[in-house]
Design a protein that fits this description.
Blueprint: E1 2-7, H1 10-25, E2 29-34, H2 45-50, E3 58-59, H3 67-85, E4 89-93, H4 97-108, E5 113-116, H5 128-139, E6 142-145, H6 148-156, E7 163-165, H7 169-184, H8 187-190, E8 199-202, H9 206-209, H10 212-223, E9 229-232, H11 235-243, E10 256-259, H12 264-273, E11 276-279, H13 282-290, E12 295-297, E13 313-315, H14 320-329, H15 346-359
Parallel strand pairs: 1-2, 1-4, 2-3, 4-5, 5-6, 6-7, 8-9, 8-11, 9-10, 11-12, 12-13
Helix pairs in contact: 1-7, 1-15, 3-4, 4-5, 7-12
Amino acid sequence: MKIVSIVGARPQFIKAAPISKVLRGTGHQEFLLHTGQHYDYGMSQVFFKELDLPEANENLDIRSGTHGRQTGQMLMEIEKVLLREKPELVIVFGDTNSTLSGALAAVKLHIPVAHVEAGLRSFNREMPEEHNRVLTDHCSDFLFCPTQTAVDHLSREGISRGVHLVGDTMYDAVLQFSEKARQHSSILASLKLNPGSYLLATIHRAYNTDDPQVLGRLLEILQSLDELVILPLHPRTRQKITDSQVIDLRRYPSNLKLIDPVGYLDMLMLEKNARMILTDSGGIQKEAYFFSVPCVTLRSETEWVETLGDGWNIVLGMDADRIRQHVHDWTRPEHLPRPVFGDGHAARRIVDEIDLSINS
């Protein structure tokens, strides 16, 4: 079967890698299409190298822009590729503009769509990602869900056909690459970090970065913590800081250490060895959970509700007092995180379902 897999952003490279490996190992012809949504080396090429992903067959190089402009350009360019390549299936991943553009381009050409990580809902309609998720799910023929919660969300929206509970391919990737990260990453040594001696933070969501007052407040919260905080700066976050007239990084004390974006292997090592993680990223919430590292979600909600309720993740938004108290007072839960994200074989189940559809 000829399949076009559409990726564009850092989390999608991670989700796609285990599936691409199985597809190519079982004789499928995969055409890997990169929209260029993430384009600098630290957010794109390094992930292909570390995840053993083949070079993209084509890179549209769309890059940054407003949501409408970016989505529209992607839709036009993806359509051209699909008309030329004539795949029998298109696979999209997650919840970015690349996801929605790929799904829309395919469905309008009557090409079946498979959505990996279907059924997620934050119920926050201010998030562009939430609209991307909902619309993509309603376009898709195969809905590959990472958890039972995702299946239940789809059922409540009247979607039951083509829904498959397969597990989380990001968990597949963590299991596949953690040992490689341990062997090859030198990030802890280069930053002179000991396991458990630091907090790890990430900030990239638009509603946390677009308003300089909000972003400045988050940085102030991080610098108010009485521990070393490692903050790999997402390019959009760094640009917002550069453009801001109210954020002066020279004011921040040495406990807040800003570094450039890191690759997948380095990020796994930083996550695994952090005392605690503070993030607005859904993927990093999950990876913290996989590694049994406590997490503070710097949002007012999360689509990954499975990580809540047992002490491993807590949603605190920008409540500075509660964040400081939780970071200071957190105690390890009696039980390890529950195995709710599958058994590490989600990619195999996804390809098996695709094969089954061919033969039925």
